[in-house]
Amino acid sequence: MPVKDDLPTPIRDNHQITEAMTDLYDRYYTSHEYEKRYPKPNQGTLHFLFENGAREAKNILDFGCGSGRYALPLLQQTNARLTGFDISHAAIAELSRFLQDNPHAERMRLFEGDAQILNGQGDYDMVMLMFGVLSHVGDHTARLATLKQLRSLMRPEGKLILSVPSIFRRRPFELFAAHWQRMTGKARDTQKEPGNILFTRNIDKQAHQFFYHLYSVAGLRAELQEAGFAITALSPESLLPEWMITQHDLLGKLDEALLPLLPAALGYGIRAVAVPA
Ligand SMILES: C[S@@+](CC[C@H](N)C(=O)[O-])C[C@H]1O[C@@H](n2cnc3c(N)ncnc32)[C@H](O)[C@@H]1O
């Protein structure tokens, strides 16, 4: 298999990753391509949130909330106060528009930009990082800093609920290419960490590079442990790709029914609940 020797991208350090993710998600939400690709929440994941405390929670932070795929149904179906945060201005602008005629809007507040804005704002009994948000944050150092920040915003009995892309199900070519770069000594900065990949997707007719850290169950457990969390529940996020099950209700129902047969590590994503240790 031919493998390019050159780094495929100028995205190398954590700062460049955040800038690139902000630009691409701004475009993703402004063009409405995100909502077209993922028009609904994953119903199994929504049930997972309810089974793991969303109904009882009083104060929820949805970190990387996007345009509210999970925050809006939670606002509708619980009495919790919700805080939505995203690095993308377009995501928060879109979510504000959705809130304009929402009778529960006074229970929701929104923040955008630098995550430091959340410091001192929180006493959350649930924090969500849904559908790969943590994977976009950067290398291990950056992800650890984010997890520690979120832990500091949580009540001692609070729950962190997250879903991350599985290393066994996603982007084998890019994983191999990244592995090759490391083997040949060509990987630099964030690309030196196993599991970190870059891939290109066209958004609104323009090529964009995504940064992802892909997780094994063991890797997720170790990272959460280092940040002061212990995993209390694990499950696969879906068998089929997220776009397929959120665009087709029947496939979504079938997928959810099959999930108990699938080990968490073999899900398209891995869902976890973690508590401060
Ligand atoms: C795949 S989307 C998931 C959005 C939403 N949670 C959902 O399930 O639809 C990833 C989101 O993470 C946000 N994001 C990327 N890097 C981030 C960071 N460093 N801090 C906070 N949010 C980030 C993006 O702007 C985007 O909205």
From TrEMBL:
InterPro entries: SAM-dependent_MTases_sf
GO molecular function: methyltransferase activity
Keywords: Methyltransferase, Transferase
Protein name per the record: Methyltransferase family protein
Statement: the UniProt record of this protein carries the keyword Transferase: yes
SUPFAM superfamilies: S-adenosyl-L-methionine-dependent methyltransferases (SSF53335)
GO biological process, one term: methylation
Pfam families in alphabetical order: Methyltransf_23 (PF13489)
PANTHER family found in the cross-reference section: TRANS-ACONITATE 2-METHYLTRANSFERASE-RELATED
